[in-house]
Design goal:
Elements: H1 3-18, E1 42-51, E2 57-71, E3 74-87, H2 93-101, E4 110-112, H3 127-143, H4 148-165, E5 182-191, E6 197-208, E7 214-225, E8 228-240
Antiparallel strand pairs: 1-2, 1-8, 2-3, 3-4, 5-6, 6-7, 7-8
Helix pairs in contact: 1-3, 1-4, 3-4
């Protein structure tokens, strides 16, 4: 793959990262304090902005209406998407179209443990989102006139990249609903194919209201892959209705 083609792949790769929530909570992130379950429903809002080349960005905003409930297993949270808006450069319209049409489950349904953290569910995976993003990125390359041979290389490169990045991709922060208030950060190296070096810096800041319930959780992600550097932002807001 030539340097020009690699730049095209990196450009499309920005869309791949945009469709995922990069970064997990740092290891030093402690457990949340005692929490109080609200009886009223709420609106959960997620803003995901991915920085692209030439100062462009891809912004996806989703909202879900949800509620807490008690069951034999403990505290459950359920909800459904009620809106989605996407703002993206024209060249990334294939990715934008996918996001507008996709009904994302978000963090629902979720089971909370005794500390208000989301219990891991092996039935929930992030692979589907990454697969759709890789396909969308390849559509972008096709529109740029990439040859069949180069497309084959790009498909392999993007697929390997998705697998490599999977170790740090977290769809939902485990302490989303009852976050630890404060700030934290963590830097991680990426093991990428072809000897390409990369790193991700994740910075977190969280605020909570009465009973420890989420007010806002902000994740700033700086990604560097080779000479390509991008900044992303993911912000969650919760409002009781």
């Amino acid at each position: 793959m030539t340097a020009y083609d690699r730049r095209m792949v990196l450009r499309a790769m920005g869309a791949l990262a945009a469709a995922c929530a990069w970064g997990a909570n740092p290891k030093a992130w402690a457990s949340a304090a005692t929490f109080v379950i609200p009886h009223r429903p709420f609106i959960l809002r997620r803003e995901l902005e991915r920085g692209l080349a030439h100062g462009d960005s891809l912004l996806v905003i989703r909202e879900w209406r949800g509620h807490f409930e008690h069951s034999e297993r403990g505290t459950l949270v359920d909800g459904a998407q009620i809106s989605c808006t996407v703002d993206a450069p024209a060249v990334l319209e294939p990715i934008a179209a996918i996001e507008r049409e996709r009904i994302a489950p978000g963090p629902f349904p979720a089971e909370l443990d005794a500390e208000g953290r989301i219990v891991d569910d092996p039935a929930v995976t992030v692979g589907t989102g990454r697969t759709a993003a890789v396909r969308a990125a390849l559509v972008v390359l096709e529109r740029l006139g990439t040859s069949s041979t180069e497309m084959s290389e790009a498909r392999e490169y993007l697929g390997q990249l998705a697998e490599a990045s999977g170790t740090i991709i977290s769809e939902i922060p485990p302490d989303l609903f009852f976050p630890v208030v404060g700030e934290a950060s963590e830097r991680r190296d990426l093991a990428l194919p072809g000897g390409v070096k990369g790193e991700v810096l994740v910075q977190l800041a969280a605020r909570a209201g009465p009973g420890g319930l989420l007010e806002s959780l902000d994740r700033r992600i700086s990604t560097r892959i080779g000479e390509d550097a991008r900044n992303s932002r993911e912000t969650w807001h919760l409002r009781v209705t």
